[in-house]
Design a protein that fits this description.
GO terms for molecular function: metal ion binding. With about 230 residues, the protein is of the alpha/beta class. The protein is built from seven helices and 13 strands. The N and C termini lie far apart (about 75 Å).
Length: about 230
C-alpha cells in the first residue's frame, strides 16, 4: 500500500534538552548570523502571541494539505513536553488550522510552541492563554478533518528544511531551524557573537566605540568623498 503523504512516523532522534536550554538565552538573529544568514522560516510567519521571548524546542514536524488539520490533532496528542510543533500547511490562509480548543490541548501537553505555515483563528483568546504561536495569518473559517498528512517526516518552509527532532528557535524576528548535527558548533559561535555585541553596546553607551571601520569600508569599495 502506498502511504506516501499519509503516514505517522516515530522520531529517530531529538535535540538534547541541555542544548535547547542554552539557546533560549540567545536572540534568533545572532544564531542566524552564525549560519551565514541563509536559513529562515519565511518573513510571512509572525508571532500571534504578545511575547517576543525566544522559544526553543525539538521539532515535531507536520505536513498537511491546506485547510485540513486531522494530522495536527494527532501531533498534539503525541507531543512531548517541550516540543515545538511545526506545521507546513502550504502557507494557505483560507481556512484556519487551529483555534483555542487545540491551543488548550497543546498547553495541557506542555508544548513549548506551535509554528504554522498557514492561518489560525481565535487569535485574541490564544493570546490571552499565552501559548507561543506563530502563523502566516488569521481566518475565522475553520478547518476540515479528512487528511491526508504526515508526522515526523522532513518538511520545508520557504526553503528551510526541518527534520523531526531538529532544534527550532523563534522570537519576534522569525523562525529558524538548527540541525541536530550542527547545533553544538552553532551554539558556541552564537554565544561568542552575543558576547561581542554586548561589549559593543557597552562601548556605545560609554562613548568609546570605534566606528572607523565604516569609512574604511567605504574607501575600500571605491566610494568617492567630495
Amino acid at each position: 500500500m502506498n502511504n506516501i503523504g499519509f503516514q505517522i512516523k516515530n522520531r529517530k532522534r531529538k535535540i538534547d534538552s541541555r542544548i535547547v536550554a542554552s539557546f533560549k538565552s540567545l536572540p534568533v538573529a545572532n544564531v542566524s548570523d552564525c549560519m551565514n544568514r541563509l536559513f529562515a522560516g519565511g518573513s510571512n510567519i509572525r508571532p500571534i502571541h504578545d511575547s517576543t521571548e525566544v522559544i526553543a524546542g525539538a521539532a515535531l514536524t507536520v505536513r498537511t494539505r491546506p485547510g485540513d488539520n486531522l494530522v495536527l490533532h494527532h501531533a498534539i496528542d503525541i507531543a512531548e513536553p517541550g516540543d515545538i510543533i511545526v506545521v507546513d500547511a502550504g502557507g494557505d490562509q483560507t481556512n484556519a488550522m487551529m483555534g483555542e480548543i487545540m491551543a488548550a490541548l497543546a498547553i495541557k501537553k506542555g508544548v513549548a510552541g506551535i509554528i504554522i505555515n498557514g492561518a489560525i483563528r481565535d487569535a485574541a483568546e490564544i493570546r490571552r492563554m499565552g501559548l507561543p504561536l506563530f502563523a502566516t495569518g488569521v481566518s475565522h473559517r475553520g478547518p476540515y478533518k479528512d487528511g491526508p498528512g504526515e508526522i515526523n517526516t522532513p518538511i520545508c518552509i520557504d526553503g528551510m528544511v526541518i527534520e523531526a527532532g531538529d532544534l527550532i528557535l523563534a522570537d519576534g524576528d522569525g523562525v529558524l531551524s538548527v540541525s541536530i548535527d550542527h547545533a553544538e558548533a552553532i551554539l558556541a559561535a552564537a554565544q561568542a557573537k552575543y558576547a561581542a555585541e554586548q561589549v559593543e553596546i557597552a562601548a556605545i553607551e560609554d562613548g568609546s566605540v570605534d566606528r572607523s571601520w565604516v569609512v574604511n569600508a567605504l574607501k575600500a569599495r571605491g566610494c568617492v568623498f567630495e
